[in-house]
């Protein structure tokens, strides 16, 4: 089931096209990354699907239906910087949020535990680090126990520790079965937490697919031998084998995640093949991303 579908969703500001006839389908349980540089139309897209920005044309469907008020509780979102009363504690700020969202306060303890703020729940918001403020914003978005969580640049401005904490939190939330839509200009962020992604460029959708198919986590092992034809026949029997590319005097072997060069070497040794060269090729994610973008110049 698709939790969100957009059909020729379009936003025009005078002569500027912010989003151009966008067609997306986001399946339930997906961690979906909306990737693109600043000004690519990500935030405008999120604004339209949340009813904050009126589309110029086109439409979007939540859970197979046109948007209506009763769906709002099923979608939690953070579009801007965390905005809470600085002198109030996390708990008191969430109490106010419960009243606005018409949610029982029994949810407060649960979401504070989920975002790892239970021990600091009675401290003033102004004493929180930026990462803690962002986690509290996520807690607020989770109060109504939504089916979908939308995050716009959730790690923006955070230090490495804060980034790692938010990334892990996103992964943990996704494991509860919620659908997450994440907008980011950071390729690494999308690659680490998302299962599917789309790339926007100047408001246009230029690519849509699975992360593992495009920025795959598979290992690529380069291996050489004095007998390439024999190596090419035998390597297909390696347990983690996916595919291979034959070069002049080596093979580039794509293997399952976690495969090490030593695993391939041991397999070849047991098959009485001596590797004259073996190494792991680290994928250049930025290069692959630029290849996708350059194909749509």
What do you see in this structure?
This protein is α/β, with parallel strands linked by helices. It has two domains: 2-214, Rossmann fold (3-Layer(aba) Sandwich); 219-286, Alpha-Beta Plaits. Helix content is 32%, strand content 31%. It has ten helices and 14 strands. It has helices spanning 42-49, 90-101, 106-114, 130-142, 160-174, 187-193, 211-214, 228-235, 261-270, 285-294; strands at residues 2-13, 16-27, 31-35, 57-62, 65-66, 75-78, 148-152, 179-184, 196-201, 204-210, 219-225, 241-246, 250-255, 275-281. A six-stranded mixed beta sheet has the order 6-7-8-3-9-10, sandwiched between helices. A four-stranded antiparallel beta sheet has the order 2-1-4-5, with helices on one face. A four-stranded antiparallel beta sheet has the order 12-13-11-14, covered by helices on one side. Helix 4 (130-142) runs parallel beside helix 5 (160-174). The chain is globular.
**Poorly predicted tracts of residues:** none
Q: What's the number of structural domains?
A: 2
- Spatial arrangement of strands, main beta sheet: 6-7-8-3-9-10
* Helix fraction bin: 25-40%
Our count of helices gives 10
Q: What shape does the CA trace take?
A: globular
List keywords for this structure.
single chain, 297 residues, alpha/beta, Alpha-Beta Plaits, 6-stranded mixed sheet, 4-stranded antiparallel sheet
What is the compact description of this entry?
By secondary structure, the protein is of the alpha/beta class.
Question: What is the element layout, followed by pairings?
Answer:
Layout: E1 2-13, E2 16-27, E3 31-35, H1 42-49, E4 57-62, E5 65-66, E6 75-78, H2 90-101, H3 106-114, H4 130-142, E7 148-152, H5 160-174, E8 179-184, H6 187-193, E9 196-201, E10 204-210, H7 211-214, E11 219-225, H8 228-235, E12 241-246, E13 250-255, H9 261-270, E14 275-281, H10 285-294
Parallel strand pairs: 3-8, 3-9, 6-7, 7-8
Antiparallel strand pairs: 1-2, 1-4, 4-5, 9-10, 11-13, 11-14, 12-13
Helix pairs in contact: 3-4, 4-5
